[in-house]
Amino acid sequence: MFFEFDGPDTVDHPELKRFVSDLEKHKAGEYLTVREMQRRGMISYSDRILLFAWDKEFEDFRCSFWGSRLTSIFGVELTGKYLAQIRLNQEDMKQRFTDLYSTVFADRKCVRNRTMLPVTNTCKTSVGSISWEQVSVPISKPDGSDYGVLSYFAFKNQPATRMRAWSYF
């Protein structure tokens, strides 16, 4: 298990740099809006996008979009799930992701991270690990008010079988 914020690999990752560059081109205001994310130039990234909306009532992030590639790699569909409902095989990783999304949302800044998680198959047998770089940015509603956090994933390696690093109730 490995988790690194704004390390040299994440800051210089070409796929993340391209995503951030395209994001800058498509936003009209200080922060990208949900509507701007749906434009043609950004929609090509949608299969590896995670979108967490902040729910004031529950004081938690709710996954409002989980890309199809993420579903096939991680083996779960998280759309509609709250961050508190998502369980990781390593519980300390859950706190790291919670801290990541909370920092991006509260401080309204871009954060890059690099993660490596052990992977087990559906029989709970270890099949190695999966590594990715991720960039997370604040995202707004069309009126400019706070919406949540958008993350884009660039994978380094992917297991041959569906992984079970994530599970949920």
Structure notes:
A hairpin with a 5-residue loop joins strand 7 and strand 8. The chain has one domain: Beta-Lactamase (2-Layer Sandwich). The chain has helices spanning 8-11, 14-26, 34-37, 40-43, 68-74, 91-107; strands at 2-5, 32-33, 49-55, 60-66, 86-88, 111-120, 126-140, 146-157, 166-168. It is 29% helix and 37% strand. By secondary structure, it is of the alpha+beta class. Strands 1, 2, 3, 4, 6, 7 and 8 form a seven-stranded mixed beta sheet that branches. A two-stranded antiparallel ribbon has the order 5-9.
The proportion of residues forming helix, as a percent range, comes to: 25-40%
Q: How would you sum up the global shape?
A: globular
Cα Rg: 15 Å
Low-confidence parts, pLDDT < 50 over ≥5 residues? 159-169
Summed up, the helix count is 6
Q: Overall mean pLDDT score? A: 80
What's the total count of β strands? 9
Q: What is the second-level CATH architecture?
A: 2-Layer Sandwich
Number of domains: 1
- Share of residues in strands: 35-45%
- CATH homologous superfamily identity: PAS domain
The biggest beta sheet is recorded as: 7 strands, mixed
Q: From N to C, what is the helix and strand string?
A: EHHEHHEEHEHEEEE
Terminal Cα separation, in Å? 22 Å
Output the CATH class name.
Answer: Alpha Beta
Kindly name the structural category. alpha+beta
Question: Which helices and strands appear, and what pairs or packs with what?
Answer:
Elements: E1 2-5, H1 8-11, H2 14-26, E2 32-33, H3 34-37, H4 40-43, E3 49-55, E4 60-66, H5 68-74, E5 86-88, H6 91-107, E6 111-120, E7 126-140, E8 146-157, E9 166-168
Parallel strand pairs: 2-7
Antiparallel strand pairs: 1-6, 3-4, 3-8, 5-9, 6-7, 7-8
